[in-house]
Amino acid sequence: MTDSKHEVLIIGGGIAGLVLALEVAERRPVTLLQPAQHPQGASRWAQGGIAAVLSPDDDIEAHVADTLVAGDGLCDEAAVRFTVEQGPAAIGWLLSLGVPFTPDPDPQAGYPYHLTREGGHGARRIIHADDATGRAVVDTLRRHVDRHPGIRLRTDLTAIGLVGDDAGQCRGARCIDEAGRLHELPAADTVLATGGASGLYRHTTSPDPACGEGMMMAAELGAELMNLEFQQFHPTCLYDPEGPPFLISEAVRGEGGRLLNLAGERFMPGIDPRAELAPRDVVARAIDAEMQRTGSDHVLLDIRHLGEAAIRHHFPTIHAHCAERGLDIATTPIPVVPAAHYSCGGVATNLEGATTVPRLYAIGEVACTGLHGANRMASNSLLECLAFARSCGRRLRHARPPESAPLLPWQAGDTPVPLDEIAAIRSAMREVMSARVAIVRHDAGLDEAARRLAELAERLAPRLPGAAPGAELASLWHALRLARLTVACALARRESRGLHFNPDCPLHGDPAPHPSRIRLEALDPA
């Protein structure tokens, strides 16, 4: 089944996709694909806020310098400077749309909205909406999208692949509806805003994380991927084996939260002079090491000293959520554990979101812009969504029609792959990635991961030619291959840098290392 042609197709309805839709729709028709089962991706769960130079006591150079330090030598300085410079105008645009950022009650404050501080930042520059910034921004953007006559919102389809042509261009997406029927959505320009790859791991900070589907859809058309080995683990996810994942914002430490082991001892000051405000990779490794040293399955994040009034004021969402799960964080430390949170790597793009495939763009966590390098600094992710969605929008508003070329053929089978088999393979993949390719990696473990993931791929690959298309099957096949490419990138980096820490090669290598670039052809036929 083929729908009518769409000028611009955006796949993904988080902050990046919503911003882009609003930017483009004044000039060109837009279809925004936002599957009902994954409505706002990870954006809605973002608590901390958006980093931007807003205070008169802050400046662009300081934000750039902090970001370069956090990226551990792998940031693209031009991308960093571009992103940081876009921050004030992007925040102004959100305010004009009505995003309810938290005001600063101090009449002497140099900026009217409250700015907090998070790990890696040398100043207070995180604007936020209490401790539920993602939800506030998404809800505001969605209201504007719903009212815009130039945006067609589709919640009934899930993209399972991209459509290419003989000229090497992307020409839209191949989708499936809940009844299993195929749809092709032709487009002059296609934009991936599908999120990252935290779903490759067992424990994540999102209840329904992406598994890198957009990255692999781009790779299937020949797009270059970059820096896949740099998967960020958020240091503080609520530890509750019986409940769904829930992020404890970096801002909790920014406002004075202290990390303790189960004996009540603070351990961060002895590891890094920035203590709890060190970059996330440092804090996550420290927690992991402390858990291994003490044989515990979590540590504690203590904010009792802030007092109940301050806790309720700064962190109403976290306080209420923990209370619903039987934990009063005003009187009891919060049990926390690191969990997969953000993919610093993804589809390589330029400053306008363009990939190496003509007519295909990527924005948000699915993209690798060069901003984060080897480690993302807190709250730079939503800033990146805004800066690159708006930049991509400026390009797409004036893009010319694509050249005409025959579409590449594609044939689906009709034999279903049982959902329980899909779930079993996905679970095995996540177990391998969590055990061997997580916060600390070893050569032997990476070799084992490569072998076991190849075996899982070989188990599934023979079923694919005759398999009936389905969202779960497509997601698993994308995830398996991305996991294998991630391991290949980790094995190729013979040094420890940023989020990639391997005790078998603990030192930095070349003072000017190159980003890890890889294509799908790097895998064997399985």
From TrEMBL:
Per the entry, which co-factors are needed? FAD
Residue ranges of every copy of the FAD-dependent oxidoreductase 2 FAD-binding domain listed in the record: 8-382
Keyword Flavoprotein applies: yes
Gene3D superfamilies referenced in this protein's UniProt entry, alphabetically: FAD/NAD(P)-binding domain (3.50.50.60), Fumarate reductase/succinate dehydrogenase flavoprotein-like, C-terminal domain (1.20.58.100), Succinate dehydrogenase/fumarate reductase flavoprotein, catalytic domain (3.90.700.10)
What class does this enzyme belong to in the EC scheme?
A: oxidoreductase
Which key words are in the record?
Answer: FAD, Flavoprotein, Oxidoreductase, Pyridine nucleotide biosynthesis
One Gene Ontology term of the molecular function aspect: L-aspartate oxidase activity
What GO CC annotations are associated with the protein?
cytoplasm
Localization per record: Cytoplasm
Q: Provide the catalytic activity annotation.
A: L-aspartate + O2 = iminosuccinate + H2O2
Query: What does it do?
Result: Catalyzes the oxidation of L-aspartate to iminoaspartate.
* Family as reported in the entry's similarity comment: Belongs to the FAD-dependent oxidoreductase 2 family. NadB subfamily.
User: What protein name is recorded for this chain?
Assistant: L-aspartate oxidase
